[in-house]
Amino acid sequence: MAHQHSQSAGATATTLIDETIKAFDPGANAATPQEGLSLINDWFSSLKTHPLAEDMVDIMRKLREELQGNMPNNQRLRSLLEALADHTDRIAPQAGGDYPSRLTSLSTALRNFAGQLSTTV
Fold first, then answer.
1. Among candidates 61, 2, 10, 13, which has minimal Cα distance to 37?
2. Using an 8 Å Cβ cutoff, are 111 and 82 in contact?
3. Which domain of life is it from (predicted)?
4. What are the pLDDT digits (tens) for 94-113?
5. SS3 assignment, position 116
6. CB atoms within 10 A of CB 4
7. HEC string of 26-92?
8. What's the pLDDT tens digit per position in 34-46?
9. What is the CA radius of gyration of the chain?
10. pTM for the whole thing?
């Protein structure tokens, strides 16, 4: 698979955002559940001490549980991805530098992928 998500301990938030956007790129191969789990673990490491991330970590925990199941439910995945996109939109204006635009792109990628899930069987 084209996506390799395991980040080194020194990986930047920018790299993690870019890798996540790439994982949800409709023009590329879709990320596998295992790759999604790897991304979630990378996000946990990155966000574990961030004060604005508590709700986001909770959503990702639920997303991880769904992906670890034998038959992930597309409706549940869609709902969790949309919730993650909503939260990303809420925190984007509070980020500094070029993070607001990157987070907006991430939110869009999450919403687009969630929309694709609603059309799959």
1. 61
2. yes
3. Bacteria
4. 888 888 999 999 999 999 98
5. helix
6. 9
7. CCCCCCCHHHHHHHHHHHHHHHCCCCCCHHHHHHHHHHHHHHHCCCCCHHHHHHHHHHHHHHHHHHH
8. 788 888 888 888 8
9. 13
10. 0.79
